[in-house]
Amino acid sequence: MRHFKLPITRRSKDLDHWNQHNLHQTPFIMFKQSTRLFSTTNALRSHIGSSPVFVSPDVKISIENLLKAKVIPKGARSIKFNKLLTIKGPKGILDLELPDFLKLHTEEGKISVNITNTTDKIQKSLWGTMRALINNNVIGVTEGHSSTLRFQGTGYRVSIQEIEGVKWVQMKIGKCNLQGLPIPEGITCSAPTQTLLILEGCDKQQLNLFAGRLRNFHPPEPYKGKGIYFNGETVKLKSKKVK
Hints:
The protein is of the alpha+beta class.
């Protein structure tokens, strides 16, 4: 530890005078020279994509080439999807299209996800996303996914009804007529109470998309808090301005 001496100024004299009278009450003040450490090495980053996806023994995985590759423009460049990953488990079967730069290595109990060029911005941006989608599909076919919608407001209620052989989510949300949507294939819905809807399925993207469509009928409003809340969603209430 290096110490330096303060220059003799009026302020430093006042400080010495204060220390002489308060030394027995206050710990001695030490002034230490602060230094900054600079390094030329790059900071370590944690990549979601580099984490392996763990697979249970009852899950079957297969990869095959698409008959016709899909090309999606990305700025001045494009992304080519030419492989199809199929994951089969107790809850169902899910397919996922993969870009050509994504490399999968399957071994006992896990899947390793890699990219061909770790310095390419597009590949790095999709690395973690594709790994998360693969992990969601593995969980979906083994355990399944679930989402909830909570209906809050006077007279707000939800029910499951069958119309001409098709199951519908029927909602009463502040209007005389019922509103709703047909339940897509692969999703099951239940309403244990009049204000709670539970959605279950193996495809997380499809599940949340359907839940979002239902929520759009009446999103939570910030003044009275009425609306359809998704997965524990909260809204900070505002006070009305009085003119």
